[in-house]
Amino acid sequence: MKKLIMVSYMAFMLIGLVGCGTATTDETEEEDVVSGDVGVEVENDVGEDPLASGGIDASEIKEISVEVEGETEMRKAQFNRSGLGYSIYVLEDYQLVSEEPERDVIFSTYDDRFFTRINVHGAGADADQIKNTIMEHANGEIEEDVEIPIADAEFALHELVESNGEITSITYVAKEYNGQLIEFTIFLPNKEPAEGAGPSMWAMLETVDF
Asked: Which UniProt keywords apply (predicted)?
């Protein structure tokens, strides 16, 4: 009889332990879902998404025109409000994230070597001083007053930089939006995807507003 009681007691304790273990695992998994961060691993030391202090309106999607090899295509783009104050429509297959204070990055989710750095200099910034600084620190030959799709730019510079046998096209642009100076730096490696990435970057930048 004592043996029977002892076996029953041990079975009861075993069921209780299994139940507690399952509950603990479920609670842990639930906490992970609620508090866990979804990160995006990209180069360029990209940090947290600035939209934590800005916003995305999931319902506000519109088609923007992208000119590729002489033909205009209409593509869907999502409204984004950066934590730095400006708004922009971001195309599918691209993402806007924060890089560091006062700077964001738009990068291709297919290849993050194709990206645009957005630097908000704010009110009172001297465009000529920024331009001169770029030219003084250039690694390659700078071409001035290049043609770009963005109207009324303060300056537009172009540079070709070679690194590890790869050539990258870099375009520097600055424009004022309601008194706020924003600088764009577009990086396009000399690879086939640049044929689509370049026009896509320009199409998104044309939608910037402050």
From this structure: Signal
The two three-digit tokens of residue 78, written as one number: 């999502």
What does the DSSP 8-state code read for residue 125?
-
Q: From residue 95, how far is each of 24, 104, 119, 126 by CA, in Å?
A: 36, 10, 16, 29
Model confidence over 137-170: pLDDT tens digits? Answer: 999 899 999 999 999 999 999 999 998 889 999 9
More confident residue, 56 or 100: 100
Tell me which amino acid residue 183 is.
E
Two tokens at 58? Answer: 């999931």
What residues pair up with 169 in beta bridges, in sequence order? Answer: 160, 188
Q: How far apart are CA 52 and CA 37, in angstroms?
A: 12
How far from 89 is each of 22, 37, 82, 86, 205, CA to CA, in Å?
45, 24, 11, 11, 8
Q: Give the amino acid at 128.
A: D
Residue pair 116/205 in contact (Cβ under 8 Å)? The answer is: yes
- Confirm if 142 and 159 have CB atoms less than 8 A apart: yes
pLDDT tens by residue, 78-135? 999 999 999 999 999 999 999 888 899 999 999 999 999 999 999 999 999 999 999 9
DSSP tag of 113:
T
